[in-house]
Structure formats: C-alpha cells, structure tokens
Amino acid sequence: MENLLVQLETILQALNLAGLFPKPQSLEVELGCGDASFLAEYARRQPQTNFIGVERLLGRIKKLDRKGRRAGLTNLRGVRIESAYFLQYLLPPHAAAALHIYFPDPWPKKKHRKHRLINEGFPTLALAALVAGGVVYLRTDDTDYFGQMTEVFGASREFQKVETPAELAEVLTDFERGFNAQGIPTLRAAYQIK
Ligand SMILES: C[S@@+](CC[C@H](N)C(=O)[O-])C[C@H]1O[C@@H](n2cnc3c(N)ncnc32)[C@H](O)[C@@H]1O
Predict the structure, then answer these.
(1) pLDDT tens-digit readout, 4-16
(2) How far apart are CA 139 and CA 118, in angstroms?
(3) pLDDT in tens, 33-62
C-alpha cells in the first residue's frame, strides 16, 4: 500500500483532490491531527467519506501513515503543513463537509493568544473551505480558548450552533484520552453553516 502522506510538489497551488483518493466521496479535514488516533479510527468507521489530516510535526503525521496503512484505509491522507495555510491555499474552495479541530494549542499566555488557530478570522476561512451546510467540530480542555471559540462563531452570522453527533463524540483523540485519564474536563462545540 502506498504512503498515505501527500508529497506536495508545490505549496503554491491547491491540491488535486480527485487524484488523492480512489473514490470521489465527501471530504472531511482534521486540522492539527497529532498522532491521528481520532482520524484513523473515524476514517475506519466512515468508509463512505474521505479524510485529510493536517499536522505540522513530522513525527506525528508519520503516525497517521502508519495507523492508516495498518488498517488498510484508502480514504485517509495526511498533509504536513500549517493548518491555516492549508485552508487558505491548499484546500480547493468549498471542498470539505466538515472541519475537525480537537485540542488545538491553547497558547495560554495573553501575549501569545494571537497564535491561536480559532480567532476572529477563522469563521471566514472555514466558510471558504466548507461546502454548503458544512460543520466545524471543536474540542478543547482550555476554558479560556473555548470562550474565544464560542465568541467568534457566536459573532458570525453565517454559522449556527449544532450538536455533535454521538457517533462522532464517542471517537476520542489522543489528548482527550489523556485528559480523561487525569480527570480534566473537556469541552466541545459544533457550528454549521446556516
Ligand atoms: C495539543 S495537540 C492535539 C493533537 C490531536 N488533535 C489530539 O487531540 O490528540 C495539537 C496538535 O496540533 C499541531 N499543531 C499546532 N498548531 C498547528 C498548526 N498551526 N498547523 C498544523 N498543526 C498544528 C501540533 O503539532 C499538535 O500535534
């Protein structure tokens, strides 16, 4: 089975999605997928959907390749790049039915908050990335960041709050399992294009 990590020939042109997957199916993207614990399992459970995991650390995205190949998944690919750049330049417009963003780096210091992925500009990026009716799924353990997430999406006229389906919520991420084991509460929210 071929390597599941996309070898980018250029980062100046959007991906040719049709060439990435054997089946032309609906696409979902996880930004900051870490070791792909969530994505490999979710892709296994949802063979009728194609998935791309985006992660900037090579050591972690290599685990997506390992897990996906071990499970024989043909609906999973990984891209090693920065998440916002991926949305802005590599994902063709209105290509994803869902964006999954789980435990993004919280940047707890006030002076570092500008580095947070979910900021005032994010709903606009998400709007351009998602198909009509597309959904952004969020999870975090950081109450301040959760407040920022709900604030920016709450302020957006284009999105409405929706429930996370149980079959999605039950698939845990690596960090989520760690927080659960330590008894640290986690928060989740989902926003759908109206
Ligand atoms: C706290 S970990 C969570 C990983 C995984 N989502 C989970 O819940 O187990 C955050 C992950 O996002 C990656 N990451 C952080 N900022 C990123 C960015 N701007 N672009 C791509 N990956 C990023 C980190 O390398 C790390 O693997």
Answers:
(1) 999 999 999 999 9
(2) 11
(3) 999 999 999 999 999 999 999 999 999 999
Pocket of ligand 1 (CB under 6 A): 32-34, 54-57, 60, 82-83, 102-105, 117, 173-176
What does 81-137 look like in DSSP terms, one character per residue? Answer: S-HHHIIIIISPTT-EEEEEEES-----SGGGGGG-SSSTTHHHHHHHHEEEEEEEE
Could you identify the atom of ligand 1 that is nearest to the CA of residue 102? 6
The rounded distance, in Å, linking the Cα atoms of 81 and 96 is 17
In angstroms, what CA-CA distances link 51 with 26, 36, 39, 87?
Answer: 9, 11, 8, 14
Mutate to test the pocket of ligand 1, among 5, 67, 103 (most ligand atoms within 8 A of CB): 103
Q: What angle do CA 18, 21, 27 make, to 5 degrees?
A: 80
pLDDT on residue 2 = 83
Catalytic sites, residue numbers: 105
Ligand 1 center to 113 CA (angstroms): 15
Question: How many Å apart are CA 176 and CA 167, to the nearest integer?
Answer: 16
Distance 137 CA to ligand 1 centre (A): 15
CA of 17 to the centre of ligand 1 (A): 23
Closest by CA position to 101, among listed 189, 5, 4:
189
- 3-state DSSP assignment of residue 179: helix
- Give me the phi and psi of 110, to 5 degrees please: -55, -45
